[in-house]
Amino acid sequence: MVAPVILSGRSLTMRFGGLVAMAEVDFDLRRGEILGIIGPNGAGKSTLLNIITGLYVPSSGEVRLEGERLNGVPPHRIVGRGIARTFQSSRLFSDLSVIDNVVIGRHSKTRSGVIDAIFRRSRADREMAASVSIAEELLKAVSRDLFEQRHRLAGELPQADRRRLEIARALASEPKVLLLDEPSSGMDDADTDALMDDIRALCAARPDLSLMIIEHDMRLVAALPHRVMVLDYGQKLADGPFEEVRLIPRVQEAYLGR
Ligand code: ADP
Ligand code: MG
């Protein structure tokens, strides 16, 4: 049985002045699926995640989550509806502890301001305490090693742990869909292998979670995604299993040409 589509995009176009960063792109993401997104620099990969998460409003086209239109919904509401992401460059709060960074990720799930609570330690103490224990459980599940380092400042962590923490923070909002923008960037092969193991474990623990992963590391792209979508100059070149997509001449040109 094929799982239902949870997230879809239709005819997505994004113009920045005269530049067309995305042209008429369609995609579907099914429940429990890992969709890889590959393509040269400037192909529009991050733009696609920015459209899905409401940071960019597409010039035309639409995004739907479980059939409901997301166009015009502000980013924090989109998190609340179940889409979480990481960014290509780290957006951790370096001066906050590991655990507080995860607690901030729970922001969309708590009624009173977790961010207020962290910075002022006044209101919402009960919610805060609940968020901390949930955040600790989550950290433990993502990485025992990160959990042990929970009181360190995020800024003191090695790069690979910072990237792992970003994933933990995104998961704290209890998403249905998790979007990762180049999660292995800045990692060596050993760290990338560990990241792949983490993602496999996560998907095994949460079979309903759907992932989109933008990636440059072809080892990861070959191993993790069920399906790969190739973007080039804002257009969709191909969509299918990696073993098939990598053989398409235009895909090879897009990579070898730069
Ligand atoms: P990728 O993530 O595939 O490397 P991006 O999606 O970041 O590519 O960018 C695609 C194109 O859109 C690039 O030419 C980039 O310069 C342009 N672009 C992205 N965001 C903006 C923006 N906010 N303003 C202007 N141009 C942008
Ligand atoms: Mg990018």
UniProtKB/TrEMBL annotation:
SMART domains: AAA. The lineage of its organism: Bacteria, Pseudomonadati, Pseudomonadota, Alphaproteobacteria, Hyphomicrobiales. It comes from Aurantimonas aggregata. Residues 7-258 form the ABC transporter domain. GO terms for molecular function: ATP binding; ATP hydrolysis activity. GO terms for cellular component: plasma membrane. Gene3D superfamilies: P-loop containing nucleotide triphosphate hydrolases. This is ATP-binding cassette domain-containing protein. Keywords: ATP-binding, Nucleotide-binding, Transport.
